[in-house]
Write a structure and sequence with these properties.
Function: Catalyzes the transfer of the alpha-amino group from S-adenosyl-L-methionine (SAM) to 7-keto-8-aminopelargonic acid (KAPA) to form 7,8-diaminopelargonic acid (DAPA). It is the only aminotransferase known to utilize SAM as an amino donor.
Distance between the termini: 40 Å
Binding site for substrate: 55, 148, 276, 309, 393
Order of helices and strands: HEEEHHHEHEHEHEEEHEEEHHHEEHEEH
Largest sheet: 7 strands, mixed
Number of helices: 13
GO molecular function: adenosylmethionine-8-amino-7-oxononanoate transaminase activity; pyridoxal phosphate binding
Oligomer: single chain
Helix content: 25-40%
CATH architecture of the largest domain: 3-Layer(aba) Sandwich
InterPro entries: Aminotrans_3, Aminotrans_3_PPA_site, BioA, PyrdxlP-dep_Trfase, PyrdxlP-dep_Trfase_major, PyrdxlP-dep_Trfase_small
Structural class: alpha/beta
Catalytic activity: (8S)-8-amino-7-oxononanoate + S-adenosyl-L-methionine = S-adenosyl-4-methylsulfanyl-2-oxobutanoate + (7R,8S)-7,8-diammoniononanoate
Number of domains: 2
CATH superfamily of the largest domain: Type I PLP-dependent aspartate aminotransferase-like (Major domain)
Number of strands: 16
Mean pLDDT: 96
Strand content: 15-25%
Strand order of the largest sheet: 4-12-11-10-7-5-6
Amino acid sequence: MAATTEELLAYDRGHLWHPYTSMTDPTPVRLVTGASGVRLTLADGSELVDGMSSWWAAIHGYNHPVLNEALARQAGDFAHVMFGGLTHAPAVRLAERLVELAPAGLEKVFLADSGSVSVEVALKMAIQHQRGLGRPERTRMLTIEGGYHGDTFGCMSVCDPVGGMHSMFAAVLPQHVFAPRPPATADGVPGWAEAFEALADEYAGEVAGIIVEPLLQGAGGMHPYPAECLRVMRAVADRHGLVLVFDEIATGFGRTGTMWAADAAGVSPDIMCVGKALTGGYLTLAAVLTTAAVGAGISASESGVLMHGPTYMGNPLACAVALANLDLLTSGDWAGNLARINRGLEHGLAGARDNPAVVDVRTLGAVGVVQLDHPVDVVKAADAAAELGVWLRPFRDLIYTMPPYITDDDDLALICAAVTRAAEVA
């Protein structure tokens, strides 16, 4: 029997946990009944322009015929097969495509089933690689304050231990080494680099690798930093024999204006994690790319194999739609389109600076951020945006947008107006 909207929402409120939400006093949710292009259709028939790309994943919007066809075609063949001892064309072709697109030297591919899992795998890779080189004492990671890498335990351990959302778990997490957060502008890089290098010198004998979100820290505060910092990290990693890990789950596939955030610095990491936009928001999938040297180090460890293997590793449906998604992205002028979106964000958000509660307005690629001088009232801000016909999901002291790449100029202007309005009431 079909349930009414009210019945569905009532059961949801009583039984379903949503991300970062109280079970005893949950925040309201909206019931989605359809989605197409950049618009979400709600149960009451209204539509909202999606300013979030469904947490930065749906870069081509919703119900895209190319992605639909790829998914249906693969479902007609087979939906899943275990990856242990078996392989299939979608996985092989996706790996080939990722290697073609990736920064130079990244040629080994591990297909994970979520962004958090990919970071867990990357951490294990770095430690296992050091074991293979005869350095089992190197078990810690060097990272930077303000970072966010996921919600599982290994991921939480390299998130910001004080200001991050996982600080309550600090006592039970592995203790890693945290350098200061990179500066927002180039004039602060020399002082930051000196502190980062000193910390690396001090802990080099204990540290297996460096892990960061390159160029833009995401859920830790939407904090961009100069590309020169990545070159510093590369030099430090080379000097001490550390594995350099770039978490490009949020930044990859053009989001910051270049295909990879690493490209802005002209450096290649030893390990790179990708996810979110990989399947265009259709299915959960992530990948970890490594150099041949990292692969050799892992294989030289006592196990002789990488000790990880998810049940849904290399899921054919996800691989097929990911391959179609990447072809869709690269077949057009993606860089020009991202530059267009960036210009629209810069222009559309400029007026938010007139709000006395706004402490900063910043853009990078297809990312627009308005930072307030107080924590956002998420419900009030989302409601204000929805009144203008836009879906936003603020957090901390930030009201931000990461729109789908297919967002046209009119809808982009509407998104910017909604961000500005939400900042006024939040």
